[in-house]
Every structure is written in structure tokens, then in C-alpha cells.
């Protein structure tokens, strides 16, 4: 089945902002919507979320990857993936390649009339969800979100605090006191600490019974992570900022620089890349906890991997639920028991509201 066209739309959703810290003004994000059409009339769709310049992802796709994709057999995913990933050595953005890969998997599952996780080979049909916060202006904001999520039955909460060690410890202490000892809490420091601060914060949240400690330092400090994992009992997670492809994970795992791995499918080579890293992590008896923060189809790509994989624990749910779901007719939902149920529709399993997308499209390539 030949690919006949590749289209990338730059969409400007309302209220689609990226806020790094509360003291820094938010950046208005664009979303790139990919459509890959085949000669059999099947269209695969994917979307980007990770912040970038407005047309960066779309222009990269059309300039570098359209010649590799259009005219190719849609089932030659591995060859297409390898060719796109070869551009990594020139630091060409991997975001476009990742979105193209996700759309190719969407086509294959649609052609088989199966939800993607079943096409991949299902392991389970539900997965527990945890909420991941945005940075809040004060401690009370984090406490309120954690209590809201706990009352809704959501499995746990991951805190994105101010990336200032003393302030972060105070937030973690307040949230733990508010939700009790048994509720799952995690801290994501967004790679902000040096080693000494990471060790100090890690020991503090370890004593508070936190479930994991994510991205305390820059991913490229592999030696520092080795020492941190040795010094702390709390699981240390890293890996979502490995922009040069899947190959760096081998060294990370072999050296014991992570107790579990994080991967962003819409940056790290799509579903193909995530499955490769997931298998590598499994061979080291480590988990891969997918980074699902993003638009609905970004969430879906990570969800299908979770449903087809054994070595992952929970689904990351953007909180508040809803703002990143622009342009969709249906979305990922969490039950009252804190579970995400596998989608039943073919492919990624969530339908796009094309009228809404058309209304907010600012530029179209292809």
C-alpha cells in the first residue's frame, strides 16, 4: 500500500500555552497536525505538542522527510524510520520524524481494523493513571490539585514545582501531609538541580515516601545519575531529554544511571523508537514510564505502548484535564477508579474534529 501524500498543518489552538516556571511568561504553542494518505484511501493522523518554533516541525517534515515517505510502502515502517533517524547525526529535529512514525502506525492499525495496542500485541486493557501538574504560584495550589485528584480516584500526582530545592521540599511536605501516607506522589524537577541539590531533595522526598524522583539533573550527567541512584533508595527516573535518538539509552542502562527510563514518543522516534527503548529497558529489568503529556493523540501514542507493554506502571494524565484536548471529538478519559480504558476504535482510536482544526489552521504544507 503506497503512500500518496504527506500533509502538515500548523494549528493555533486557543489557550494552548507552555509555561516553564510561574515567574516566566508562558509561550503560545502551535500544534502540527500530520496527515499521511495512502492509495487505498486510509489516512493516518498524528499531532505534535513539544514546544518549538511555529512552523519548525512542519517545515522539517516537508523539506527532509517528504521525499523519503511519499511513494513508499506504508508497511516499510522500519526502513522509513531508519532513514529518518539517520538525520539525527546532523541534529535535524526528530519531532517531525516521530510524528510521521506515529501516523504510519495509525495507518497500519486502521488497515487491520484494530486498535493500535492490539495491532502491537496487547498486554492489558486498562492502566492506572496519575495526574501531572503544571507549576503553581504557591504551595496551596499544589495541595488543592493533589486533593482534587485523590477525591476523583486518580492513582497519584506528579508535582512540577519551582525547580528551587528548598521551595520544592516545602511543597512536597505540604502535599504529603494533605493526602496522607498511602497516596502515590512523584516529583519532577525538570532537570534543574546540580548533584548536591538533587541528593538533598532526593533524601527529603525519600523520607516522605514519594514513589519516584524524576529528572533531578540534566540527562547528560550520566556519571552524576550513577552516583545518585547508588545514594538513594527512591527510584530515580531520567531520559526524556535524550534528543539525539534511542542509542544513548544503552549506555544509561548499562551503567546503572536510571532506575527507570522516561521516553517522549513524539520526540524520540515515535512508537517505533519507544518500543525499541522499551525492549532495551526490559532486557535490563527496568521500567519505561512513557511521557504522555501533550495533545490527545500524543497521549494516545503513549497509551497504546503502555497497553502493549509489561514493563510500565502508569499513564501520565495532563492536569487539569481538557486544555490539551483541542480539536478532538473524543479524548482519553479516566474512570472513577483512576483507570484509563483502552480505546476500541481502529488506529490511535480517537477521532479528530476537522472543523475545529480547519478553523484554527494558520499554515498548511503539502
What is the straight-line distance between the termini? 20 Å
Give the radius of gyration: 20 Å
How many DSSP-defined strands?
15
In which range does the helix fraction lie? Answer: 25-40%
Taking all residues together, what is the mean pLDDT? 94
Largest sheet: 9 strands, mixed
Overall body shape: globular
Low-pLDDT ranges: none
Strand content: 15-25%
Number of helices: 12
Order of helices and strands: EEEEEHHHHEHEHEHEHEHEHEHEEHE
The secondary structure category is alpha/beta
Describe how the helices and strands are arranged:
Blueprint: E1 3-11, E2 17-18, E3 27-28, E4 31-38, E5 43-47, H1 56-69, H2 77-85, H3 95-111, H4 116-120, E6 126-132, H5 139-152, E7 156-160, H6 165-179, E8 184-188, H7 195-207, E9 212-214, H8 222-231, E10 236-238, H9 248-254, E11 260-263, H10 270-283, E12 287-290, H11 296-307, E13 315-318, E14 339-341, H12 354-360, E15 361-365
Parallel strand pairs: 6-7, 6-13, 7-8, 8-9, 9-10, 10-11, 11-12
Antiparallel strand pairs: 1-4, 1-15, 2-3, 4-5, 6-14
Helix pairs in contact: 1-3, 2-3, 3-10, 5-6, 6-7
Explain how this protein is built.
- The chain has helices at 56-69, 77-85, 95-111, 116-120, 139-152, 165-179, 195-207, 222-231, 248-254, 270-283, 296-307, 354-360, and strands at 3-11, 17-18, 27-28, 31-38, 43-47, 126-132, 156-160, 184-188, 212-214, 236-238, 260-263, 287-290, 315-318, 339-341, 361-365.
- The strands form three sheets. Strands 6, 7, 8, 9, 10, 11, 12, 13 and 14 form a nine-stranded mixed sheet that branches.
- The relative contact order is 0.16.
- Helix 6 links the parallel strand 7 and strand 8.
- Helix 5 packs parallel to helix 6 (165-179) and helix 6 runs parallel beside helix 7 (195-207).
- The longest helix has 17 residues, at 95-111.
- 37% of the residues lie in helices and 19% in strands.
- With 366 residues, the protein is α/β, with parallel strands linked by helices.
- The mean pLDDT is 94.
Amino acid at each position: 500500500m503506497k503512500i500518496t501524500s504527506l500533509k502538515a498543518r500548523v494549528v493555533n489552538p486557543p489557550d494552548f500555552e507552555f509555561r516553564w516556571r510561574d515567574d516566566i511568561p508562558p509561550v503560545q504553542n502551535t500544534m502540527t497536525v500530520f496527515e499521511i494518505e495512502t492509495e487505498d484511501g486510509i489516512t493516518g493522523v498524528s499531532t505534535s505538542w513539544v514546544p518549538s518554533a511555529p512552523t519548525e516541525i512542519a517545515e522539517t517534515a516537508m523539506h527532509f522527510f517528504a521525499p523519503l515517505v511519499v511513494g513508499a510502502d506504508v508497511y516499510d515502517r522500519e526502513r522509513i524510520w531508519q532513514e529518518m533517524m539517520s538525520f539525527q547525526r546532523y541534529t535535524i529535529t526528530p519531532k517531525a520524524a516521530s510524528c510521521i512514525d506515529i501516523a504510519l502506525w495509525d495507518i497500519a492499525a486502521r488497515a487491520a481494523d484494530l486498535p493500535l495496542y492490539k495491532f502491537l500485541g496487547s498486554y492489558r486493557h486498562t492502566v492506572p493513571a496519575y495526574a501531572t501538574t503544571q507549576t503553581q504560584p504557591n504551595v496551596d495550589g499544589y495541595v488543592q490539585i493533589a486533593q482534587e485528584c485523590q477525591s476523583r480516584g486518580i492513582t497519584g500526582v506528579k508535582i512540577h514545582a519551582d525547580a528551587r530545592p528548598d521551595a520544592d521540599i516545602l511543597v512536597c511536605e505540604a502535599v504529603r501531609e494533605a493526602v496522607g501516607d498511602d497516596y502515590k506522589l512523584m516529583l519532577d524537577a525538570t532537570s534543574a538541580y546540580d548533584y548536591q541539590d538533587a541528593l538533598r531533595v532526593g533524601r527529603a522526598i525519600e523520607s516522605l515516601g514519594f514513589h519516584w524522583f524524576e529528572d533531578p539533573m540534566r540527562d547528560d550527567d550520566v556519571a552524576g545519575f550513577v552516583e545518585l541512584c547508588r545514594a538513594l533508595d527512591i527510584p530515580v527516573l531520567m531520559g526524556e531529554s535524550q534528543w539525539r535518538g534511542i542509542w544513548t539509552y544503552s549506555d544509561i542502562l548499562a551503567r546503572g544511571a536510571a532506575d527507570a527510563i522516561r521516553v517522549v514518543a513524539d520526540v524520540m522516534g515515535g512508537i517505533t523508537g519507544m518500543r525499541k527503548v522499551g525492549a532495551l529497558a526490559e532486557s535490563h529489568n527496568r521500567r519505561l514510564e512513557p511521557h504522555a503529556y501533550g495533545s490527545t493523540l500524543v497521549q494516545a501514542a503513549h497509551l497504546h505502548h503502555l497497553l502493549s507493554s509489561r514493563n510500565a506502571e502508569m499513564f501520565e494524565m495532563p492536569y487539569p484535564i481538557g486544555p490539551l484536548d483541542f480539536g478532538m471529538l473524543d479524548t482519553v478519559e479516566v474512570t472513577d477508579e483512576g483507570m484509563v480504558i483502552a480505546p476500541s476504535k481502529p488506529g490511535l482510536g480517537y477521532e479528530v474534529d476537522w472543523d475545529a482544526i480547519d478553523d484554527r489552521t494558520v499554515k498548511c504544507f503539502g
